[in-house]
Amino acid sequence: MRIANFAPASFPIWGWLGLAVISGLLIAALPITITTALIGATLLIVLMFIEPALAVVMLLCVAPLKTLIETEASFNLPSDPGQLALVMVVGIWGLRKIADREPFIQPAHLRANRLYLALAIFLGATWLTLPNAYSLGHGISEWVKWAEIALLAYIVADFAEKRWQWILFGVLLAAVIQAIIGVYQFRGGSGAAHLWILNYRYFRAFGTFGQPNPFGAFMGLTLPLALGTTWGYLVSAWQHRHESTRWRPDVLLMGVYGIMAGIILAGLLVSWSRGAWIGFASAGVVLIWLAPPKFWQGTLAFAAAGGLLVGLWSAGLLPASITNRIVSFTEDFSGFHDMRGAVINDDNFAVVERLAHWQAAVRMAGEHPVLGVGFGNYEAAYKKYSLINWPLALGHAHNYYLNLLAETGIIGLIAYLVMGAMIIRLNFRAIQKASTPINRGMALGLMGVWAHLIVHSLFDKIYVNNLFLVVGVLLGLLAVLLHHTEQSIVHTSN
Predict the structure, then answer these.
(1) Is residue 295 situated within a structural domain?
(2) pLDDT of amino acid 268
């Protein structure tokens, strides 16, 4: 890394002296707290220029603070912290490209995989829905989110080519921080009376997301990656078990990621989010099935795990509070019928409200079947299609497939499904062609991430509260794996 490019020798000595004098005057004049914050921010920026992957780690850690700062902070930011951090990431990436005299577009990355083509298909399809949108501003805002996902995926792949471990650790570090906050809230640190659970003994956790469901989604998206990475380092440690090296980094990292997975699992449980639980159950199926190197071994492992789970459930050995919540969830959503005549009471209010929003989405799609009401326009169009007892929109349909069908019509929904199928196919290739157990473990974990996203999207919209930035980073990690796979294939063929 040519760090010297940021401090060229031609910069005059009087310039450095002037900066030193100005800095000294500011330190003397400003309060100690502000001075400390400025010094810390300056050091952080310098470190991020030296190691750009740290900028992505910072983004991952501050993005979940969006709701907390909006509702609790005594100051106003020009934008939410996730967007500000994204600007920082893009800026550092651009400056490093200029300083290192590298092209912004790396043909090697584009040739190595079709991930960006998958994203472009969805971006193109959703752009078609904007001209007739109820609110063009809402549509552009939602479209920009997905453009940011694509841009972040490319930048992360570029940053993480040699430092992908930093990005991987950053994703899980951000999840661990949120999980610890969640466990604290669960054990009484919340104080939110409407989140009482388990006979008013505990609180549903929500981290800094403001609501349990996006918090649970974050836990469910990152837990498969933590488990897959732990598995990869476990396999690596086993393969090198006969080596006489005293200090084994694969053993150490296996322990670190295993502990992180345990903390994130605790966060998932205390979220009390049934959609997140069912999403992770789907991810667990994928992890168990694909972890062994041969298909028959995965099938046997899945059958054994499934049999054990059914046996424990039948014998009543699983916690009753958890099983009852899952059973009630499946009963609540087992029948989707006309909600206009539904009897509303305290027990079914949340379920009927969600199903009423599903029905509104279906009505939107019925009138606009091809291109929908406009990308990101569910809330803008909701008033016209709402049911009489539910005049206020929840912001989205709480089913991303119905939400997309309403907003983008059949064109947008098909494009989203095609994009998802392409990503899964590429990820499966990364598992099959992985050059190391660690790469395979990460690819396995990412496959679990997409499984969770697919299933949880049946009950919620995951791309909220800056979670879409996390998805962009995860896609960037997949791009790195695919590039490594391509390089490995080329090296083997030569």
Answers:
(1) yes
(2) 97
Q: Is 36 within a domain?
A: no
Report how many domains make up the chain: 1
- Indicate the burial class of 335 (C-beta count within 10 angstroms; 0-12, 13-18, 19 or more): exposed
Q: Is 8 helix (H, G, I), strand (E, B) or coil?
A: coil
Angle at 489 between CA 486 and CA 492, to 5 degrees: 150
Separation between Cα atoms, residue 276 and residue 85, nearest integer Å:
27
**How do residues 167-220 score in pLDDT, each as one tens digit?**
999 999 999 999 999 999 999 887 777 888 888 888 999 999 989 999 999 999
The reply to whether 480 falls in a domain is yes
Cβ proximity of 322 and 265 under 8 Å: no
Neighbours of 29 (CB within 10 A): 9
Enclosing domain of residue 200: 115-494
Q: Say what the pLDDT of residue 6 is.
A: 45
Q: Which helix (H) or strand (E) holds 196?
A: strand 196-197
Q: Which DSSP string do the residues of 131-194 spell out, in sequence order? A: TT-S-HHHHHHHHHHHHHHHHHHHHHHHHTTTTHHHHHHHHHHHHHHHHHHHHHIIIII---GG
Residue 103: the pLDDT is: 79
- Please tell me which residue, 141 or 27, carries the higher pLDDT value: 141
Q: What percent of the chain has pLDDT over 90?
A: 51
Identify whether 349 is part of a domain: yes
